Amino acid sequence: MNDNVSSSSPDGARFPRKKATVFCNPHSGAGTQKTFDHLKKILTPIPVHLTATTDEFRTHLQASAKDGFDLIGIVGGDGSLHLAINSLSEMIFAQQARKLTLAVIPGGTGSDYSRNIYPHVIPKYWNLFFQQGQDRLVDVGLIDVLEPNPRKILFINALGLCINAEVVKGKNSLPKFLPSRLRYLLQTLSQIVSFKPVPMVVTTE
Predict the structure, then answer these.
(1) I need a labelling partner for 140 at 20 to 30 A (CA). Which of 46, 91, 101, 160 fits?
(2) pTM of this prediction?
(3) What is the dihedral angle through the alpha carbons of 186, 192, 197, 201, rounded to the nearest 10 degrees?
(4) Confidence tier at 30 by pLDDT (50, 70, 90)
(5) Which residues 6+ apart lie within 8 Å of 118 measured at CB?
């Protein structure tokens, strides 16, 4: 068995990919384990992995990119996508990995990006998606953080600031045994009461 799959170019021609693999973020949503079990059955011989922690998820993504995987699938929500984009771009910008295709399989609480970019793919057809799907280029935004810890952060789909960011930050600080939607609700109600506006300057080019 090998982990090679093929894809199609816009004119319908088929071409091989060298390597493909899939990783599931265990903390992205309640349905991750169910999605993992399903993909494990239908994506043979593509290896599907369920990582134990978010740090392990990041480490395996970067290791796969360094090992030359051309197609990396992630099961998770918008947070997992943000983590994957930044983890993989670090490798590519440092020339420790070549350019690759990222497939995003809905598995989080929201999964807004993946549901919008290919809304008609239902779970039982993910095997066809990996075999016949077409690559597409999408825009990625860049945040240049100046202080207190200068760094560059990539984002995709949407950028949340102010109360949105505080809700997500607070949600992630709550105990993981609470359902994800409940953590969002609790923090949303909390921030509606306690959030104070912050000064911000937005410039465009």
Answers:
(1) 46
(2) 0.73
(3) 70
(4) low
(5) 129
